[in-house]
Design a protein that fits this description.
5-stranded parallel beta sheet, Rossmann fold
């Protein structure tokens, strides 16, 4: 089973309210906790009646994150759970591509995403046609697509990866003898992953021999996360000045210039594990801001720098209210064509096999 945090949501309304008060003290106003607890209790009751499992991504709003998920974690952890669960219904409290990944891995199950507006700038930043064009331009280069893509793009790929295992996937392919690897769609994750493993970087459209052919190179695309690209090196400088003893952690979807200035770069799992297991005076996260709030509730003995103002508008579409409605009305169901499921599953399986 995945190492995502396993939660055991309380059964009664009073237990639900008390758990939320403990976890969300100082994060969510108490009057709001009382209102949200009633919704969370109804969700927890319904999911048991319906044999549903709720997966909550690290970027979910704190009131949801700390009340209804059976598992919380990053996309890799939750993808593994999607493949293993015995539940009849998977409710993915995350953005739409995550629900598609769950459907690919468990096609016989009903997969619900609580909002049909929960998109992703990265997933929208590359199409299946783009991948086919790149494959004709670089015919000998395997295609690695970030899990933050839609199923039709995965179906054109050789491997998937997450921010947590991108370096491993690239290293695996270079070890097989490949000298060029197409990496889509996040430009910054491609640049940072290439630097991590000592490979060169080429932009899509560059001649394949712009880097000597005996040197491994990652061929990147031009999409960026609309949240992480907003972090600037000056943000790191400001945190250092105000909180000189803080450990600064950044998601590898941030620019290389930001990554060069921080203490730790890694996936949301890397960040969560670091905060849990490493003593520091305080911690500052350069990622979607709900995660800092969620870690503050999860690890109240840790001091989190709460200086972040960046929320993902797509993750923000998923609320407790929407999750309740999704269960009650069985919406929004993820539907994929069987041939897309079959083709998209292979690169995901290859990713999971080497994680």
């Amino acid at each position: 089973m995945s190492t995502a945090e396993t939660l055991e949501p309380p059964i009664t309304l009073d237990e639900t309210r008390e758990r939320m008060r403990v976890r969300l003290a100082g994060i969510v106003p108490e009057f709001e906790i009382d209102l949200k607890a009633e919704i969370a209790h109804r969700i927890n009751t319904l999911k048991r009646e319906m044999n549903a499992v709720i997966l909550g991504h690290n970027y979910m709003e704190p009131a949801l994150y700390h009340s209804v998920p059976d598992f919380t974690g990053d996309s890799l952890q939750l993808s593994a759970i999607s493949a293993e669960t015995t539940a009849d219904i998977i409710v993915f409290c995350g953005v739409w591509f995550m629900g598609e990944t769950a459907k690919v891995l468990s096609p016989q199950k009903m997969v619900l995403v609580p909002s049909d507006k929960a998109g992703c700038s990265l997933a929208s930043g590359v199409s299946a046609a783009d991948v086919r064009l790149l494959k004709t331009r670089y015919p000998d280069a395997p295609v690695v697509t970030y899990v933050n893509t839609y199923a039709e793009v995965k179906a054109e790929s050789d491997y998937c990866c997450t921010s947590g295992n991108a370096g491993k996937v690239l290293s695996h392919l270079f070890a097989l003898g490949h000298k060029r690897i197409i990496f889509l769609p996040d430009e910054y994750l491609a640049r940072n992953s290439a630097a991590e493993i000592g490979a060169a970087y080429l932009s899509a459209g560059d001649p394949i021999d712009a880097v000597p052919m005996d040197k491994p190179a990652v061929i990147g695309w031009n999409a960026r996360c609309e949240v992480h690209e907003l972090f600037k090196p000056s943000d790191v400088d400001a945190i250092r000045k105000q909180y000189p003893d803080a450990v600064i952690l950044a998601h590898p979807e941030c620019s290389p210039e930001v990554i060069a200035k921080v203490d730790i770069s890694g996936s949301t799992k890397v960040m969560s594990d670091y905060v849990e297991n490493t003593d520091a005076p305080r911690y500052a996260l350069l990622t979607e801001c709900s995660m800092g709030d969620n870690l503050a509730g999860q690890f109240p003995h840790r001091e989190m720098v709460r200086a972040c103002g960046l929320r993902c508008k797509h993750m923000n579409e998923i609320t407790l209210e929407d999750t309740l409605e999704a269960l009650e009305q069985r919406k929004y169901q993820v539907e994929l064509r069987p041939e897309i499921i079959a083709r998209a599953k292979q690169p995901i399986d290859r990713m999971l096999a080497i994680r």
